[in-house]
Design a protein that fits this description.
Layout lengths: L2 H20 L6 H25 L5 H24 L5 H23 L8 H22 L4 H8 L2 E2 L2 E2 H27 L1 H5 L3
Antiparallel strand pairs: 1-2
Length: 196
Amino acid sequence: MNLPNKLTLGRFVLTILFLVIFFSRTPFNETVALVLFVAASITDYYDGMIARRDKLITNFGILMDPLADKILVCSAFIAFVGRDLVPAWMVVIIVARELAITGLRLVAASKNVVLAAEGYGKHKTVSQIIAIVSVLVLVSYPEWGRCGELIFGFKIFNAPWIYWFTELSKWTAVVLTAISGALYLWRNRQIYLQDL
């Protein structure tokens, strides 16, 4: 098994560890969950980069890399609903978009059509990761003592600035997710309209 595929499998393991730690009652669990999520996100960047650079692209990687990404992101957002950190309706939009695009790609694959990722999709992924990291920072920075308070606890309108940044990042992620999904479905409509 090549290195990019090992990194992809590692992302599945990190996702499970992230969820276990995030819902545990151990000291500094939210900080550890933040570190695990960031580590998993870094593997997402490097597995694709290494696969393209070293020409190690495999059918396993083509299938499992985007699946690992979606499981990581959707698991985090669903976990946040369980802790009342993100409204359920926002997560429904995010998960529904990911399922719809995955379904479209499966239909396209059955017709021997490969649908490439688009720029909006990459921006969507970045916005989702920023939103997740900001939520994790918001809940974990009180564990960091005075240093965390100095960096993230500065108040704007009677709330820490990281709170407002997190709210903005959640809305940005939802809007970009909805727009990118709608555009992707519209641009590739001929694939599913043929079967209606």
